[in-house]
Amino acid sequence: MIPERKSKLAGNADFNAVKDKARNITLLFCGVGPMTNAMLMLNTVKAAKLAAGLEK
Description:
The protein is mainly α and 56 residues long. 39% of the residues lie in helices and 0% in strands. The protein contains 2 helices and no strands. The longest helix has 18 residues, at 34-51. The N and C termini lie far apart (46 Å).
């Protein structure tokens, strides 16, 4: 755990650049979660299978 005095809040979007374009902005304090990682891996495997002609 990071001591409070040495930590800072950091998001994954440039707030000032997107504030007028986005309806809502939420912060991901620790990055993406395990479900996002799992779905990203699943989609990567599916794309590789499609590219290799192993799946239609």
